[in-house]
Amino acid sequence: MVAFRFHQYQVVGRGLPSAIDEHPKIYRMKLWATNEVRAKSKFWYFLRKLKKVKKSNGQVLAINEIFERNPTKIKNYGIWLRYQSRTGYHNMYKEFRDTTLNGAVEQMYNEMASRHRVRSHCIQIIKTATIPSKLCKRESTKQFHDSKIKFPLVFKKVRPPTRKLKTTFKASRPNLFM
Amino acid sequence: MPFKRYVEIGRVALVNYGKEYGRLVVIVDVIDQNRALVDAPDMVRGQMNFKRLSLTDIKIDIPRVPKKKTLIDAMEAADVKNKWENSSWGRKLIVQKRRAALNDFDRFKVMLAKIKRGGAIRQELAKLKKASSA
């Protein structure tokens, strides 16, 4: 697939050791960001809201990118998110069918932007999970849980195989039947 | 008129856009309304948008998301390669490829062959005209 906009990172950090606390607790977070720098920044943002620690008195111990273990297997992903609309904050649960978690997250961001006009910086991902087919809630994902799935492609888009062969005018009208 | 070519598991399709242009692939699963998981004997299984696929008439019998070996065996059993190369669509593509790969001497030979064929047709036509007018 084309390069993903959002990568999944695991960030591990803790407060700096001090006289009162020789071995501060270490915290790990899995989050989505476009690059590593942003991932570290997001880590501190969330950790500040949970514990009394800031970037100035803490340290990031490790940051690793997490890759998809099985990118050729189709999975149903459930994503719990918290987003800011024009009138307040709301929680939401969305389901997506995709081969990779990064792909599903990218689908989620695109769908939130198109359906609710929510930009990516107003979305916080609370939790993601791979859902077995029996527990899916949305009809739009459940309709593909059919081992004998069969449907026709109704409309054939006629286009040249490379953009170089594109022309403005054509001699005859295209045949759109598949 | 009703549809004859359906997106289903085992449908053989031709890729008509992008990096894999011209390759015959098998649809092994449907991800959602726009994408399918496709597989071919010599490529890594991946997802592809239906907009990049042209469905063919050939369908093979496979379970959902088969192992590579099962897929290759099923393709051999259904004889996809020969069916494709003998179909009119497949033959047209082969001819196109041949014509694109001609060198100047080949094109000269084609020109001579065309002239010869045209001459033979006109002779026959003249004979038939004479026979019908006489």
From TrEMBL, chain A:
Residues covered by the Large ribosomal subunit protein eL20 domain: 7-128
Please list the GO terms describing molecular function.
structural constituent of ribosome
Cellular component annotations (GO), alphabetically ordered: ribonucleoprotein complex; ribosome
Tell me yes or no: is Ribonucleoprotein among this UniProt entry's keywords: yes
* Family annotation (Pfam families): Ribosomal_L18A
- Which HAMAP family does the record associate with it? Ribosomal_eL20
Q: Which InterPro entries match?
A: Ribosomal_eL20 (IPR028877), Ribosomal_eL20_dom (IPR023573), Ribosomal_eL20_eukaryotes (IPR021138)
A GO BP term here is:
translation
* Family membership: Belongs to the eukaryotic ribosomal protein eL20 family.
Q: Read off the PANTHER family from this record.
A: 60S RIBOSOMAL PROTEIN L18A
According to the lineage, what is the superkingdom? Eukaryota
Q: What is this protein called?
A: 60S ribosomal protein L18a
Keywords for the protein's UniProt record, in alphabetical order = Ribonucleoprotein, Ribosomal protein
TrEMBL record, chain B:
Record domain Large ribosomal subunit protein eL14: where: 45-117
Q: Where are the transmembrane segments?
A: none
> From its record, what is one biological process in GO terms?
ribosomal large subunit biogenesis
Q: Which molecular-function annotations from GO does this UniProt entry contain?
A: mRNA binding; structural constituent of ribosome
Q: What InterPro entries does this protein map onto? A: Rib_uL2_dom2, Ribosomal_eL14, Ribosomal_eL14_dom, Translation_prot_SH3-like_sf
**Keywords, comma-separated and alphabetical:** Ribonucleoprotein, Ribosomal protein
Where does it sit, as one GO cellular component term? cytosolic large ribosomal subunit
Q: Which Pfam families match?
A: Ribosomal_L14e
Q: Which family does it belong to?
A: Belongs to the eukaryotic ribosomal protein eL14 family.
Write down what this protein is called.
60S ribosomal protein L14-1
Q: Which organism is it from?
A: Canna indica
Q: What is the lineage of its organism?
A: Eukaryota, Viridiplantae, Streptophyta, Embryophyta, Tracheophyta
